[in-house]
Amino acid sequence: MDKTATVLSSLLFLFTFLTTTSLSKDLCNQDDKNTLLKIKESLNNPYHLASWHPETDCCSWYCLECGDATVNHRVTSLTIFSGQISGQIPPEVGDLPYLETLVFRKLTNLTGQIQPTIAKLKNLKYLRLSWTNLTGPIPDFISQLKKLEFLELSFNDLSGSIPSSLSTLPNIMALELSRNKLTGSIPESFGSFPGAVPDLRLSHNQLSGPIPKSLGNLDFNRIDLSRNKLEGDASMLFGANKTSWSIDLSRNMFQFDLSKVELPKTLGVLDLNHNGITGNIPVQWTETPLQFFNVSYNRLCGHIPTGGKLQSFDSYSYSHNKCLCGAPFDNCK
Ligand SMILES: *[C@@H]1O[C@H](CO)[C@@H](O)[C@H](O)[C@H]1NC(C)=O
Ligand SMILES: *[C@@H]1O[C@H](CO)[C@@H](O)[C@H](O)[C@H]1NC(C)=O
Ligand SMILES: *[C@@H]1O[C@H](CO)[C@@H](O)[C@H](O)[C@H]1NC(C)=O
Ligand SMILES: *[C@@H]1O[C@H](CO)[C@@H](O)[C@H](O)[C@H]1NC(C)=O
Q1: Could you give the CA distance from residue 99 to residue 147 in angstroms, rounded to a whole number?
Q2: In this predicted structure, what is the pLDDT of residue 74?
Q3: What pTM does this model have?
Q4: Hey, where are the domains in the chain?
Q5: 239: Cβ below 6 Å to ligand 3?
């Protein structure tokens, strides 16, 4: 009798133990799960999100990550990449308050504006909406996402000007706004960021006017302003005391005298092709570890200094100038 009771109670204990542990394996927060199911519905239940099934733990669904126990396993990352997805960014993304990473990438049928509810995501560190067909302006509210470290809005159809408030982001490490239809000038405020100087990529837009002098105060590791309609002086971006690795100003309308421009001793990539740059190439340029170099289609003249890396580039890097001479061209007369 006693024995049977013991066996029965042990079995009962085991059963309870097994069911509670299997339930506690469902880590997903119920609010997050409801929100995610609404997002799936908003996107017309795409096959890409087939694993998002109400009967399973949402922390096991594709395109998602949950945080650890310190944030009660709330959803911290949503990455929708390269699927058959049509429609707009669902407003419900704003209801995932622990989100640190939000990515919609390589979705050509994703249209509409940058979803305003993203403003609610105060924990966001990494926002990447790229290779989609988003339109409209870059919203000012992005500057309220104070934890943002990486902002990529490249390869879209965004228009309007760049909000100057982006320079107030205290932790930003990279601002990538290339390949849109942005107009206006580079904001004066971009001459000072509260934290480290971010990598700046603004290429393939319709930005115009001179670049603010204040940008000369910064030591960019990478700056790409290529393929815009920028004009005037860009010499302030250079300097022997800077530590830049890559500077691309190609295909603009810059006009300045190169003769006194010193390059950072760290510069590996310099592209100035298709501008109206005058003067000669300084001897100091032989002191840089250049790996890519292009000054073609400008109005440069004079002797190409001998030494360093300058002769490791062929004539295509120097072609279509006014009167450059010396290797890789013929000797100067
Ligand atoms: C985009 O939409 C078009 C028209 O509805 C469709 O033919 C195409 O397959 C969609 N592409 C993707 C990647 O979803
Ligand atoms: C999306 O963008 C691609 C590439 O820019 C373009 O070919 C396509 O027509 C666009 N689709 C829509 C629906 O706007
Ligand atoms: C570069 O740094 C040196 C030594 O720190 C300083 O003497 C010089 O004035 C600086 N040059 C420029 C152009 O800032
Ligand atoms: C330099 O730019 C010109 C003009 O775009 C291009 O034709 C040439 O191939 C480029 N040279 C190199 C080495 O990329």
Answers
A1: 11
A2: 96
A3: 0.89
A4: 27-248+265-275, 249-264+276-333
A5: yes
CA gap 89, 105 in Å, rounded: 11
Average pLDDT over residues 168-172: 97
Spatial separation of the C-alpha atoms in residues 201 and 5, rounded to whole Å: 73
Q: What is the CATH number of domain 249-264+276-333?
A: 3.80.10.10
Q: Among the residues of the chain, which ranges form H helices?
A: 2-24, 30-42
> What CATH superfamily is the domain 27-248+265-275?
Ribonuclease Inhibitor (3.80.10.10)
Ligand 3, pocket-test mutation among 241, 262, 284, most atoms within 8 A of CB: 241
Buried b (16+ CB within 10 A) or exposed e, 23-59: eeebbbbeebbebbbebbeebeebebbeebeeeeebb
Structural tokens at position 310? 């300058």
Q: What is the pLDDT of residues 101-156, one digit of tens each?
A: 999 999 999 999 999 999 999 999 999 999 999 999 999 999 999 999 999 999 99
Ligand 3 contact, 216 CB (< 6 A): no
